[in-house]
Target: GTPase Der
Amino acid sequence: MAVPVVALVGRPNIGKSTIFNRIINERLSIVEDTPGVTRDRIYARASWLGKEFRLIDTGGIDMSGEPMTVQIKNQAEIAIDEADVIVFIVNGQNSVTKEDEDVAKILYRTKKPVILAVNKADNPEQRENIYDFYTLGFGDPNPISGAQGTGIGDLLDEIVKAFPVEDTSEEDETIKFSFIGRPNVGKSSLVNAILGDERVIVSNMEGTTRDAIDTKYHDDKLDKDFTMIDTAGIRKRGKVYENTEKYSVLRALSAIDKSDVVCVVLNAEEGIREQDKRVAGYAHNAGKGVIIVVNKWDTLKKDNHTMKDFENQIRDGFQYLAYAPILFTSAVKGQRLDQIPELVSRVYDNRDRRIQSAVLNDLLLRATSIAPTPVVNGKRLRIYYMTQVAVQPPTFVVFVNDNELLHFSYERFLKNQLRDTFDFEGTPIKILPRKRK
Ligand SMILES: Nc1nc2c(ncn2[C@@H]2O[C@H](COP(=O)(O)OP(=O)(O)OP(=O)(O)O)[C@@H](O)[C@H]2O)c(=O)[nH]1
Ligand SMILES: Nc1nc2c(ncn2[C@@H]2O[C@H](COP(=O)(O)OP(=O)(O)OP(=O)(O)O)[C@@H](O)[C@H]2O)c(=O)[nH]1
Model:
């Protein structure tokens, strides 16, 4: 299921990043926990009233070099392309400006919901002063103060109400996967090699909100249905902003949101880069299955150590992805390409795996006898019971005497026990402590 995308738009200095931070802090459960993923203020996963969404601050997309008016225009267009709900921010301490009108003109072109937020409404008088903004034509203005945090909850209510209704009539049972990676690593070549290989394409689906083309096909050998999520294509439209790195990261995030399994493609000639870590970290945080594909393997001179060395490099660079299988491929020589769909399918099953409570509690008993639970400040962690509450990814609740006592290291130990006992290759797993009354 795709996560709705919410974009903040408005002229510079209007308070976008203040509001961005407010929404994230206000919200209280950011899903990100990997260093390096949130540093960039352009996106974050958040949720409100139990509904998850991805927040984009279009002001964070660097377009330096472009004149201000072009920047604002591009940012509004990115919002239209990428978002399901657009939050248009204006300044309540002046009246409508020429720039507000310019942004509005661009936003009129979309059928997507646009919610008008009047920022810097710091006190009651200013909150009364919002009526000017009806002239922009986006319905009721919502007074907020990013600085003080007032009105943010009501704004979030409006945002969540505007989310598209998930179309469940077409509940799609195919295995959705994508190739994510920097330019030129060989994504298109891998897609073509896999689609070209005696597999019947069922349909090309126009992305509903974005113009990505996803390809649904039947794999005869595995007798399974797949959907290849498109990540390339887009850049070819030739808009200015499409060549910026942050924009290409945003595109990758949309594809990751739609995927069950993400193949992170690296170029064997170049090794690992910061951007690779960032997108892989996002896939991990989003609970997606991850496979690392080292492509262009044909270009390396190999000896006994080449593969092992590369693997060590990857394990070092992507420490939180120790569970991800690594595949060394050549799209041009056809090396190990067959293994990609097989592995995708296996990782899909692992991410969907459900373990019975009785079996889990046997494991728990064994685990706590191998490594006694820690004592913190004189108090011992007690784990009474463990049960699986979700799949995709597998999520376990452990009932404990005190949440604070379940430290990272013991949690990791339990995860390793789970991985040693069951096949969770390629999928993240989550453990949530709950205090038993
Ligand atoms: N009085 C008042 N000031 C605010 C409020 N929200 C933001 N500001 C101030 O407005 C200025 C701009 O805020 P930012 O959040 O950096 O604005 P931005 O839209 O992200 O700016 P760009 O990065 O240029 O796009 C800062 O000095 C904030 O402190 C508010 O609700 N009331
Ligand atoms: N030697 C070698 N070259 C490859 C391999 N895979 C792709 N290439 C070449 O690398 C270049 C880029 O391949 P693409 O498939 O277009 O890469 P991409 O990741 O889709 O690139 P963007 O569309 O720019 O994101 C092409 O010249 C390919 O022929 C491979 O396994 N080995």
